[in-house]
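Field reference: sequence -> structure
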Amino acid sequence: MLILRIRQAETALKDGRLDEAFELARPEDVRAHRRGQRLIGRLVRSLVTRGEAHLEDGRLQEAATDCERARQLGGNLPEVVALRDAVGQAVSARERSGRRRADAAATARQHVENGRLSVGANLLADMPTDSHRAQALRGELGARRNAADAALHRAEAAVAREDWAAAMDELAEAKRAHAASNRVQELSARVVTLVNQHARSAIEQGRLDLADLLIGRLVSFSGQTIETRELHQVIEQCRQVRERIEQGHPRQAVEVLQRLASILPQAGWVQDALASAQQSADGLERLRGGPLGMLNAGRPDIRTATPSDETVPFETPVPRPASVNQSAETGMPSRFMIHVDGVGSYLVLRDRQITIGPDGSSNRPELALLSEPGTPPATVERVDDDYFLTSTGTVRVGERAARRKLLSDGDKIALSRRCRIRFGLPHPASTSAVLDLSGTRLPRTDARRVILLDRDLVIGPGPASHIRADELTSPAVLSVRDGRVFCNSRDAIEVADRPMDRLAEIPLDAHVRIGPVSFVMTTT
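Structure field:
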């Protein structure tokens, strides 16, 4: 039987059936026989030769198998060791090449997702054509180019009909698909210039509402350019004029209108408003300087005057003060809560100046915190686009003690050893700030972030949002105008499970859904 197996193995070896010959030559009795030893020597050399052929053709697994079989039959012969080392080096080289291709594919994907399609295409050109990952990326790259081209075509049509909102929406979609496209950048720059021109024209014509909408959309689209910031400041000065008039300070309104007249020499309404404010200021000063003004100055204090037959005590009716929860500017609450399902709760404060102090304090701060009783009160005030912190005691901002400090994004405020607040300006195009609480919390709510609302706040993905909701694919902007809240979003908006007109306001205590995110605004 042994001689028969040896002959069968010799025949298989002669015919090139090395795998069959290996199986027949494996038993120990074959290797113990002299004829079997000669067979094994020829078989080992044949396995090494075939392994080298596999290695040359890149079939590393087959080469490694032949090397292992030759080692099992002949041990660590020099030719076997050489083949094993060559196979190991080839495997290492293939793994390094695979890692390089994986890194190149990851880099290409990052460039494609960031809209740099040309850079991604150049990286993909160096990858093998049979790579499934490369094929998938090439398909995505082509789809993004098509999407960008289609969005650009729609944006050009919107520009032609002067539909600036649609043009900016389509360009934003084109930027997401192909941000590095020269066509996208050129059309975006053109739209920014045209919208700025239309906003300025609207201001000069007295359409401040339209200009405010255009500037707000433009800031969300491209950030604040020099011209956009100038127009934004013009709108803010117009708001200041309105506030001064409503507060009964026409002389202060005159000062602001004089600045506006120098900035907007073509706006006839500014001159008319300046003349009217000047007339009102002069008339009010004449009234205050006349006999009517003397009446208030010479009136006796009825609390200390002695009643007589000629004087009848009476009580002056005192007007009821405005609700502490009502903004002095409009009917919109000065503080309210936003409860976002699955995200959290947020306290929103609209006043330009808020006080911060411990809950239960006799001064009743707007932002009451559960902190040590000895925590010094502090004030955060918004002046134009800046925020200032003022405190009667010494607080720490960063590593330094301060009583008044211009706040910057990321400043860490320590009112006490435990009560810490982080100040932030998440969105570069918004002057609304956030206060993140640490070591303290708000009474009767689990909110950990307070939003100091100027005109708008952003709900969207990523850290550049006042309310972070990563489920949204694009940001939604809540804006307060004339005491009403409006929402601007690319996603569909539903209120109480019904589609909402984009020009309609968002009511309080109503369930609002923007795409996959839902929230409710409630008073506190």
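Note: The first strand starts at residue 335 and ends at 340.
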